Amino acid sequence: MNKLIVKGKNKLYGKVEVKSAKNALLPLIASCVLLDFEVGFLNVPRLKDVDVLLEIIKSMGGKYRYDDDVLYVDCSTLYNPEIPCEEARKIRASIFLLGSLISRFHKVSTVRPGGCNFGERPIDMHLDTLKKLGVEVSNGEYLYLRTDKLKGSKIFLPFSSVGVTENLIMASCLAEGETIILNSAKEPEVVCLANFLNRLGARIYGAGTSQIRVEGVKKLQPKIKYFKPITDRIEVGTFMLCSLVTGGEIEIDGADFIHNTELIKKIHNNTCKIMLSSDKIYIKSSGAGSGLGFIKTAPYPAFPTDLQSQILAYSCFLRGTTVIEEGVFKTRFKVVDELKKMNADIERVGSRVLVNGKTELYGAEVTAPDLRGGASLIIAGLGADGVTTVSGLDVIKRGYDRIDEKLRILGGSVNEG
Ligand code: EPZ
Fold this sequence. Notes:
The protein is an alpha+beta fold. The chain folds into 2 domains: 3-18 and 233-416, Enolpyruvate transferase domain (UDP-n-acetylglucosamine1-carboxyvinyl-transferase, Chain), CATH 3.65.10; 22-227, Enolpyruvate transferase domain (UDP-n-acetylglucosamine1-carboxyvinyl-transferase, Chain). Helices cover 30% and strands 25% of the residues. It contains 14 helices and 23 strands. It has helices spanning 22-31, 48-59, 85-88, 97-105, 124-131, 162-172, 188-199, 233-246, 261-267, 308-315, 335-340, 371-383, 393-396, 403-409; strands at 3-7, 13-17, 38-41, 63-67, 70-74, 107-111, 136-139, 142-146, 154-156, 178-182, 203-205, 211-215, 226-227, 249-253, 272-277, 280-285, 293-296, 321-325, 345-349, 352-356, 365-367, 387-391, 413-416. The strands form 6 sheets. The chain has a 4-stranded mixed sheet. A 4-stranded mixed sheet has the order 2-14-16-15. α1 packs parallel to α7 (188-199). The longest helix is centred in the middle third of the chain and has 14 residues, at 233-246. The chain is globular, with a radius of gyration of 21 Å. The termini are close together. The structure holds ligand EPZ. Ligand EPZ binds next to α1, α5, α6 and α12.
């Protein structure tokens, strides 16, 4: 049952709703460690990575509960800043707990995090930047962090890392003095975290720009009981491409199109017509267009690396050439070998792939190499001739809530097998 059976060529029609973003929820949940009161997050999907992080919080003495799509997190009873090794190794987001745990307990113990296996996932920037706030780090098989006091500092990020920016915001918002984060990540998920903490009395300025200033405060206050995170821009982009590859037309409710500008710019007028409003995207295929030219992934607002595998699959169906350069995770191309099993014409040269879209894709037995690679194979299966079996549904469930059910409602033939 850890497979999806995808029958190609069914046109997708209808409406789909996207909920709160996985990559917004994870740092938001980690930031609850800073609070001694309960908060409710609204419009929450059921995702494996979120549940792993919640279980880590519970193992340290915190509490959580779902009430339909509201997720309540209460860290007032947290007492143990030790992240269990087995759980920490399951997700990248366990590293997000360093900032909030060191801020609350002045000590943390854990192991190196897990996460999608598309190559090296170092944590050197996380540790080096926390040291600049006065944290001592012993970095072997196990990670031990401690501090007498967190003191604000000016910190330059060699790369605009999302996780490092989020960790530093959490580590500095209760520190003594002011912290300046230079070359900070501008992702919407970073802005969402800053907005949440500022609603509770934090003083975080400049989120969404390349310079974030944090004035440490004594304590965060229960000024709000509920918070609605941003919706999942990667799920939105995934559904846009699912529809296009079938020649369909769908409406995506809850989409904030501003967060998908680069994707929209790339596909609009070439292969589809798109209508935008404040909270929905309507996309109608206008037939297989020409190749997409050159796409390079990079930190926001550039084309997102988390949609790279998906647009790679989509470009296989276009009449022409597409070149994709991966500018964030240089080796994030494990799905290429799986797409080739479906007759895709893709040539890899270092951190680039060249896609020749003149070939028909055929159903095959393939395996999800990672979360977004799994979504990419679903897209390929929806457009291919025949039946595609995608193994690794557990990997896909890490970041997509009931994607098979949503695609069936839109008319896709996608079933667990
Ligand atoms: C976040 O991962 C996302 N995950 C990733 O989404 C996303 O691909 C990535 O940001 C980039 O947008 C979550 O938010 C949970 P990074 P993160 O630190 O923070 C290097 C998905 O599919 N780096 O911005 O781990 C790193 O190797 C996931 O939803 C260091 O060298 O990514 C990479 O080349 C996959 N040292 C670059 O920075 C460090 O200490 C950007 O990584 C940290 C990162």
